[in-house]
Amino acid sequence: MSNSNKIDEEIFYPSEEVIQQARLKNWNDLADFAAKDLEGFWEKEAEELEWYQKWDKVLDDSGKPFFKWYTGAKTNIVLNAVDRHQKTYRKNKLALIWVGEDGDVRTMSYFALNREVSQFGNVLRAMGIQKGDRVTIYMPRIPEIIIAMLACAKVGAVHSVVYGGFSQDALQERIDDSQSKLVITADGGWMNGKIVELKKIVDASLRKCPSIESVIAVKRTGHDVRMEPGRDYWYHELIKLPIANGFCETEQMDAEDPLYLLYTSGTTGKPKAILHVHGGYMVGVYTSLKYVFDLTDQDRWWCAADPGWVTGHSYIVYGPLLMGATTFMYEGAPTYPYPNRWWALIEKYGISVFYTAPTAIRGLMRFGESWPKKHNLTSLRLLGSVGEPINPEAWKWYHRVIGNERCPIMDTWWQTETGSFMITPTPTVPLKPGSGTRPFFGQEAEILDEEGNPVPDGEEGNLVLKNPWPSMMRTIYKDPDRYVEQYWSKYPGKYLTGDSAKRDKDGYYWIIGRVDDVLKVSGYRLGTAEVESAMVSHPAIAEAAAIGLPHEVKGQAIHVYCILRAGYNGNDELNEELIQHVAKHLGPIAKPEKINFVDSLPKTRSGKIMRRVLKARAQGLSEGDISTLEE
Ligand code: WTA
What we know:
The protein is of the alpha/beta class. Helices cover 29% and strands 23% of the residues. It has 19 helices and 32 strands.
C-alpha cells in the first residue's frame, strides 16, 4: 500500500451539479447549530422518526460514561424501518433487490418485506422467543438474513449476527457468551462458485452450546445437510404454518432497550459483545445516511459489505430501510465469474450510491480498467469508502474509473462501537484523497499524546471523541467494567478510539491505523490474540505471536511467529496444515499470510510478547524503546 499516511495536498471540489442536488448546501449551517446545541440537533433529527411515546430527556449523562438517549421514549427500529412505510406510497416500492452468486434474483416491496418479517416474527414468538432473548444469526448474504434481523427486532429479541466467514470455535464462543436460545442459519451459501457449509459449522459448534434449544435453517443451496429431529427446523416450512399468518405486533421498546449484540475483536483473546439499543442507534444511523450520502427514498443504495459486520447492520439493513430507500445486496464474490461482476450489477440495477472498502477497490484495480469500462456506470451519483484508510492511489482510481470524475467519495471513519459515521465529509465538502475530512455534526475529535495533551497539527497521536452521540455503544455486554476501562479511562471523559491519526492545518483528519492489537485484514477486524489462540490449539504449537504487516491488496496481512513443541518439524507440510487449522477453527478470513518458525519470541520481563518489536524487525525499522525487553 502506498503512502496512506501522506498528507496529500490535492483537493477535489464538488461540481455545480453536486451542489445543486445536495440536500445540505452548507456544512457550516448545521455544524454550527449542532456545536451550539447538541441536544437540540439530535432532538430535531429524532422528530423525523416515529415513536410510540416521545422522550422526557434527549441526553441523560447523569451516569456517564453510561450515556442514555431519548429516555422515557418508546419505539422500535422496525416501526421506522418497515411499519411506517406501509402507510405511504413506499408500500409498493422496492425495499430490497437481491442477486445470488448463481444468478438467482429476488426483489421485495416494503409490503412484501413487512409480510415476511411478520410471518417470521410470529414463528419466533410461537417458538417461545421473548423480549430480551438472544438469537444468534449465522447466515450467508441472502434476503432471509435481513428478515431474520428485522423479525428479532420486531419481537424485541436481541440479535447477535456472526459473520459467515467465521468458523466453529469463533461461532461457539459467541453463542455461548450471548447465551442464545436459537440459531438461525442456512444449509449453505455460494461464494466463488463453491458452497460454504454453514449448517455443518453450526452442528460442530453446537456440541458445546447448551443454551441452544433450536436451529432454524434456510434452504439456499439445496445440498444434503443433516437435520437433527426435535432441534432443527426448515425456515420455509415454518413460515408456511398457520401460526405464521396474521398480524404480528411490533413490540413497544424503551429507547434504551437492547437491539443487538455484535462481537468484535479487541486487545484480549476473548471477543467482546458491543451492545446497541433501539432508540439512539436508530436516530444516529438515519441521520448519518441522510446527510452523508444524501440518501432519499428514490435511491438504489448498495453497501457491498456483509450484514455480519457493523457496516452491514447499519448500512445494508437498518439505515437504508429507515430512509425508505431500496437496498441492494449481492451474495457472492466480486470477481465471480469475472472481475466485472460488481460493475455489471451497478449497471443492470441502476445503483445510485455505492459504498465499499479500500481493499475491494485495490483488489479490483489489479484487473485493469477494461472491466469497469465495459459498463455504463452513469447511474452513480456518489461513492463511499469504509473500513481502513484509503490510499490516494486507490481513491483516485475509484474517483476516475468508477465515478467518472463526477461522484464525490465519502470516506467514512467509524467503528462497531460508534454505530454510525463519526468522521466523514458530506457531498459538498472539498475532498482530500485519503482523509475522512472532519467530525460529523455534533462531534468533536482531538489528537492527544500519551499524557493527554493535544499534539500540534501534522503530528501523530491518539484519536479521541469528545462528545456523546445517540448511536454510541451502551456497554460491553456483561462486562461494564471493561467498557469503562477500555474506552473511557485513558483520558477520563473522552472516548478512546484505539486509532492513531493526524490533523492537518485545514482541520482535516487523517487516520493512520490501530494502535492496539487489532488487525484490519481486507477490512475485517480481527484480534492478534484470536489468531494466536487458534494457532496454539494445534498440538504442534507451544507459543505464537501474530502481527499485521502491510499488504498491497489486503491493507494488512497476518504474519505469525511460532515456537514448535518438541518433536515437530517446521516444514512446508506443517505450514499448510497450520493455515488450514486456523481457517477451520477461527475462519478463512483469518488465514495467516506467512508462518515463521522461530526459537524464541521477544518478551517483556513480565512475559508479555512484544509484538511491536516483531513488527519493527520484520519491516527493518527501529525497534524503538526496548528497555523492557528481556533477552
Ligand atoms: C478502521 C468498521 C480509516 C479504524 C466500520 C477503526 C477506518 C476500525 C475507516 C473499526 C476509514 C474504519 N478510514 N480507517 N474510513 N473506517 N476504519 O469496528 O481503524 O470493523 O478503528 O468498523 O476500522 O473497525 P470496525
